[in-house]
């Protein structure tokens, strides 16, 4: 794997065959090259999943690859596979609890299934590239006891999974496995959440880490759109978090790449992210980066079938949610946003 | 200044300038992997977005950025992204399967979690067990907006071909957060944060008055219709 590192406006290349290009702009390692920081005029959309079962993963990858093939031009795609809460079993093995609420999977087993998904995608697609994010979240009352170790183990797992892809002949030009994490103020305290991120970023072979984040309780009307006179202070959000804390999780680490949640059709979440983007600009004299937008339209449809109202008010559609974010957030030039991807969550129950 | 020194200085300056120009050209000519963005830009869509901008300064900035994008597209349009000779044949049989693929959680489990798309619930603990060939996974906890209101969430899971049915049941009284203490047969014993005991029948899917009262079971469980494991992808988010 070759590394192209960009500092500011300069590019330094170490070229080899089958390069994978990482860009370091300001403070982040990004798996995408775009030296012109503008909104993607042609985003790609793909389903992401809350994993309930481990069956049919190869077919899932193939279905995703087949769908991407049906789009008439080469593109980069993003898929977040959320394997559930961080967990450590009685034998002190780290992994997650799946969304069937009855199965524990180790990081080693997750690595295997990531390889299977990647294999399916690569076998059914010859023109696109998939960024497959191995996902977990920051919830759980016992996160504090395992967070650092779990974050470190997660980075190790992703590294091993990419090594496996290479050994099985799946080049990085087809599939790259990254990390992904659903981080929300309502899940846990900022200090406990930071432990996971510290552990992940302390790993020497860490990859990009896509943050599916929320800004629970953060205001939709502060920081002001008109540049303020004097200092700008972070507003308080829920559960002891501040806007600065949300920024640190979503943008503060060198690996972090934000894909904010935009679940609310009324635009409130988009407005929260807009204000966080402004705050970031005023305080850091820098622009925030949003790589895409996440909704949960399909998951809502599944739950509403058995429990009407289970998703009321949180069921923004994929396409509308993406456009809404683009209009409310990245239309402001002070907020630097690629918005490469629209992603929508669905429960994975054995079929795409 | 001596003539030789002058000439030497001119030479050094020229060398530096040539080197700088070369470096700039090398940087500018560095190929980008962002080819698909350049090749597949839809300027019309971007132009349409620009017309929506009312702030003159923002509009001018966006117009400039679009022009930069167009120029870059022209520069890199010739470079292909996909592999030219990809055959796409790999056998997953060569990928070793783990000895164990997921291990079941059984008994009382701390912080089992809720299926909570609205982010309105908080979990304390739960219980997972098997009854009549089905897996019953029950989480206990409370509503974030009203900690006095406890609830349970019951998930019934089929063991063969996977399916899950989920139902939330509120505690009949506002006694605080619920926690699973024990399970006797199909009866779950829960203690609220105010000390009160409640009993939930897994088969009836409801709270009952005591550990012993007999209640009819719920409508026999019918797994949802199985989704086609290999559907033809038809989903297209583009209008």
* Beta-strand content of chain A: 15-25%
DSSP E strands of chain A, number:
15
Q: Which residues of chain A form runs of ≥5 with pLDDT under 50?
A: 1-39
Q: State the name of the first-level CATH class of chain A.
A: Alpha Beta
Total of DSSP H or I helical runs spanning 4+ residues of chain B? 4
Distance between the termini of chain A: 31 Å
Largest sheet of chain B: 5 strands, antiparallel
Biggest sheet character of chain A: 8 strands, parallel
**What's the architecture of chain A, going by CATH?**
Alpha-Beta Barrel
Main interface: chain pair and counts: A-B, 101 and 84 residues
Q: Write down the overall mean pLDDT of chain B.
A: 74
What's the Cα radius of gyration of chain A?
19 Å
Order of helices and strands of chain B: HHHHEEEEEEEEEE
Strand order of the largest sheet of chain B: 2-3-4-5-6
| Helix proportion range of chain B | 25-40%
CATH topology title of chain A: TIM Barrel
Beta fraction of chain B? 25-35%
Description:
The complex is a heterodimer of chains A (352) and B (239). Chain A has a single domain (37-348), classed as Alpha-Beta Barrel (TIM Barrel). An eight-stranded parallel β-sheet of chain A has the order 13-12-11-10-6-5-15-14. In chain A, strands 7-8-9 form a three-stranded antiparallel β-sheet. Chain A is built from eight helices and 15 strands. In chain A, β11, α4 and β12 (209-213) form a beta-alpha-beta unit. Chain A has helices at residues 57-70, 107-123, 143-167, 190-202, 243-252, 268-284, 297-306, 318-328, and strands at residues 4-7, 10-13, 23-25, 28-30, 44-51, 76-82, 85-88, 94-97, 103-106, 129-137, 175-183, 209-213, 256-258, 289-295, 336-348. Chain A is α/β, with parallel strands linked by helices and 352 residues long. Chain B has two domains: 3-76, no CATH class; 107-208, no CATH class. A five-stranded antiparallel β-sheet of chain B has the order 2-3-4-5-6, with no helix packed on it. A four-stranded antiparallel β-sheet of chain B has the order 7-8-9-10, with no helix packed on it. The interface between A and B is large, with 101 and 84 residues.
